Amino acid sequence: QVQLVESGGGLVQAGASLRLSCKASGFIFTDFAMGWFRQAPAKEREFVAVISRSGQTTTYPDSVKGRFTISRDNAKNMVYLQMNSLTPEDTAVYYCAADRRSPLDYVKTPAHEYDYWGRGTQVTVSS
Prior knowledge:
Elements: E1 3-7, E2 10-13, E3 18-25, E4 33-39, E5 46-51, E6 58-59, E7 68-73, E8 78-83, E9 92-99, E10 116-117, E11 121-126
Parallel strand pairs: 2-11
Antiparallel strand pairs: 1-3, 3-8, 4-5, 4-9, 5-6, 7-8, 9-10, 9-11
């Protein structure tokens, strides 16, 4: 069955870096655009980074642009999120998600467009 398993979260100090990983299985990885989303307590889930099926197109919100980088390794069925210069505002549960309906070099940002979700990994940034 479809599985998305996140790893790499943890507790870090402000200014530190973390690299999140997501292992995908149970579907044809290259048929899916992939995304990272996050949800902080009492807040809605928001997109953090998305990447097209080919890996050629990426999109970030202004809040993380220049600090976060999404990438994918289609040979390993993996998607990564490199997070630099972390701030307490980045504290949240981070989720990996897969979208099966996007064309090759197209990405979507609304969470409801994504079909499959992992269980999340906690990222906590202390000040």
